[in-house]
Amino acid sequence: MWTTQGSPLLVHTKALAEALHRDLTAGEAAQKAGSSPWVIEWAMRYGQPSIEQAWHRLRSAQVRDVIVVPLYPQETSSTIGSAMDELRRVMARDWVPTPLRVVPPFHADPGFLNAVSEVAAESLAQHEVDHVLFSFHSIPERHISKADASGSHCLAAQYACCSDTASPVAAGCYRAQCARTAAGLAQRLSLAPSSWSIAFQSRLGRIPWAQPYTDLELDRLAAAGIKKIAVVCAAFTADNLETLEEIGIRGRRRWLAAGGEHLVLVPGLNARASWVRALSALVRA
After folding, report:
1. How high is the pLDDT of residue 179?
2. Of 28, 131, 247, 272, which is most buried by a Cβ count within 10 Å?
3. Contact between 144 and 178 (Cβ < 8 Å)
4. Architecture of domain 110-265
């Protein structure tokens, strides 16, 4: 899965940045003159190129207005929060502040949902499956409860709280945002309620994380007689080790060992044209 250009995440992120730049500059008068008002830099929260390196390149290009695009559909302090903390740490060293606009979480954005459902529909057309599992990156349950200022909503009644879309708490709840993403995709894919479910992957340690756990959900579905399953990793916009290895290799091995016959890993959005257009619209909004 590792390429000569580097990790899958690095390769796909670079391709997305280049495609986004082409889309943003297409048809602009500035492009005809041989220049563009758009300067795009991309960075990794942990790894290279770093946020600090990308910021220095923007400063060297004399960029004075910055739009930050966290490539996380759903929001949590350990993803968007951590990335923004690091950016603010780097920016604090500047003598003159730079105006920022941050693209908000896009878990329910029609363009994002349409792009994911487009990829999923192609996989489902090629592979007959009995069930679709929407697998999201997990976070500790304590992160969910800390986001609930009321202290009485999140993690109530075995996650029934996530279905309360009218609650202002649910609007900012990571797990509720994941549920909303899954529901939007299931609707677009015309999935019957009994033919899809949600789970959470990549947990670490022994403390409780968001549930149900993806590995145990695979066991449960196989025990229930499901033989062919498709997994959509809708918390990731690009393929990476947590999709390709955790689900595509270890998840498939576990599925077969549990009695399943076939597991289809739906590809990530990567630099898909429909996703590039949706992202461009979010940037321009």
Report:
1. 93
2. 247
3. no
4. 3-Layer(aba) Sandwich (3.40)
